[in-house]
């Protein structure tokens, strides 16, 4: 069951940082519910092994490690109480994660004005929550969505926007600079927010931010607090996932002198981000440390 979820995350059948985190939480819950062990020690080592399997699936998503940490942490000193505690942790994480996305929609949509054209990249449930909430509130908005090569997550975005009735234009990723003058606001999701407020998100996000900056268009990231990375407090770098060449070029094998590079994410420096909308408020990127300290409970200790 853990391997099944791990494989779905690895193959991107389950994708998007929030969904990955909730799927991992649910997998750990189901795992401990049926875990057949007779001591707390055995429980602990089986849980750690399961957590490790999940953590190895997609290296960039800090939502995954934050979720696993929140779910697998328990204080109980007997087996059955520990089992119950992990199940309760998982339920709490899933519920609060869904609520967080809804709340981000509420908070982020306040910055959307009637008549705005919003550019979005990839397929982010948090970014879509902002866009959909603005639409539900009766603001007449339009969206420009990028394809998001090589996996075309933009197609998921246009499908969803079409279902909810938001007029949308689809563009190739390289058309962003050509259309940026038509855009009023950029809204994207987040895989990771670092302690200094930089954003790790789908490859291409940083080019969009650069275009938005040059054209003086506001750039918003929508990120639940569990997308913030405690490790970056101590200067850890975020590992950028490199995926297989076949995602970019089917017949790459026939070339003798070619190497296909396929980084899945990139880093947008905080200087290009106007606001990060979290479920606890809209913050300037420079305030990211506060989220890590106050909401995730981490701080620098000597
Ligand atoms: C998805 C991606 C999304 C973030 C946020 O990448 O970069 O913008 O994960 O998504 P991939 P959400 O398709 O490679 O997982 O807001 O849904 O958590």
UniProtKB/TrEMBL annotation:
<dbReference type="InterPro" id="IPR005250">
    <property type="entry name" value="R15Pi"/>
</dbReference>
<dbReference type="GO" id="GO:0019323">
    <property type="term" value="P:pentose catabolic process"/>
</dbReference>
<dbReference type="InterPro" id="IPR000649">
    <property type="entry name" value="IF-2B-related"/>
</dbReference>
<dbReference type="GO" id="GO:0019509">
    <property type="term" value="P:L-methionine salvage from methylthioadenosine"/>
</dbReference>
<protein>
    <recommendedName>
        <fullName>Ribose 1,5-bisphosphate isomerase</fullName>
        <ecNumber>5.3.1.29</ecNumber>
    </recommendedName>
</protein>
<keyword id="KW-0119">Carbohydrate metabolism</keyword>
<feature type="active site" description="Proton acceptor">
    <location>
        <position position="122"/>
    </location>
</feature>
<feature type="binding site">
    <location>
        <position position="58"/>
    </location>
    <ligand>
        <name>substrate</name>
    </ligand>
</feature>
<feature type="binding site">
    <location>
        <position position="227"/>
    </location>
    <ligand>
        <name>substrate</name>
    </ligand>
</feature>
<dbReference type="InterPro" id="IPR037171">
    <property type="entry name" value="NagB/RpiA_transferase-like"/>
</dbReference>
<dbReference type="InterPro" id="IPR011559">
    <property type="entry name" value="Initiation_fac_2B_a/b/d"/>
</dbReference>
<dbReference type="GO" id="GO:0043917">
    <property type="term" value="F:ribose 1,5-bisphosphate isomerase activity"/>
</dbReference>
<keyword id="KW-0413">Isomerase</keyword>
<feature type="binding site">
    <location>
        <begin position="15"/>
        <end position="18"/>
    </location>
    <ligand>
        <name>substrate</name>
    </ligand>
</feature>
<dbReference type="InterPro" id="IPR027363">
    <property type="entry name" value="M1Pi_N"/>
</dbReference>
<dbReference type="GO" id="GO:0046523">
    <property type="term" value="F:S-methyl-5-thioribose-1-phosphate isomerase activity"/>
</dbReference>
<comment type="similarity">
    <text>Belongs to the eIF-2B alpha/beta/delta subunits family. R15P isomerase subfamily.</text>
</comment>
<feature type="binding site">
    <location>
        <begin position="201"/>
        <end position="202"/>
    </location>
    <ligand>
        <name>substrate</name>
    </ligand>
</feature>
<dbReference type="InterPro" id="IPR042529">
    <property type="entry name" value="IF_2B-like_C"/>
</dbReference>
<dbReference type="Pfam" id="PF01008">
    <property type="entry name" value="IF-2B"/>
</dbReference>
<feature type="active site" description="Proton donor">
    <location>
        <position position="191"/>
    </location>
</feature>
<comment type="function">
    <text>Catalyzes the isomerization of ribose 1,5-bisphosphate (R15P) to ribulose 1,5-bisphosphate (RuBP), the CO(2) acceptor and substrate for RubisCO. Functions in an archaeal AMP degradation pathway, together with AMP phosphorylase and RubisCO.</text>
</comment>
């Amino acid at each position: 069951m853990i391997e099944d979820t791990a494989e779905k995350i690895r193959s991107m059948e389950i994708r998007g940082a929030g969904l990955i985190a909730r799927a991992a939480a649910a997998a750990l819950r189901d795992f401990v519910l049926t875990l057949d062990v007779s001591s707390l020690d055995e429980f602990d080592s089986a849980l750690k092994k399961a957590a490790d399997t999940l953590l190895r699936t997609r290296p960039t998503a800090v939502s995954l490690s934050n979720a696993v940490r929140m779910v697998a942490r328990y204080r109980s000193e007997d087996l059955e109480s520990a089992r119950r505690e992990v199940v309760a942790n998982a339920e709490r994480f899933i519920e609060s994660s869904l609520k967080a996305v809804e709340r981000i929609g509420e908070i982020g949509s306040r910055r959307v004005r009637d008549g705005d054209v919003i550019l979005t990249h990839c397929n982010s449930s948090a970014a879509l929550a902002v866009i959909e909430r603005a639409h539900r509130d009766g603001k007449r908005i339009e969206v420009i969505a990028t394809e998001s090569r090589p996996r075309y997550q933009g197609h998921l975005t246009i499908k969803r926007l079409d279902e909810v009735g938001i007029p949308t234009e689809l563009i190739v990723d390289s058309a962003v600079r050509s259309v940026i003058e038509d855009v009023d606001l950029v809204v994207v999701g987040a895989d990771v927010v670092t302690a200094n407020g930089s954003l790790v998100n789908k490859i291409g996000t940083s080019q969009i931010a650069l275009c938005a900056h040059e054209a003086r268009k506001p750039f918003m990231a929508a990120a639940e607090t569990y997308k913030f990375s405690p490790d970056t407090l101590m200067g850890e770098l975020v590992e950028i996932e490199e995926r297989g060449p076949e995602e970019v070029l089917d017949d790459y094998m026939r070339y003798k002198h070619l190497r296909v590079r396929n980084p899945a994410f990139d880093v947008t420096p905080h200087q290009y981000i106007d606001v990060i909308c979290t479920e606890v408020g809209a913050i300037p990127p420079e305030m990211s440390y506060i989220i890590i300290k106050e909401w995730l409970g981490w701080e620098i200790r000597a």
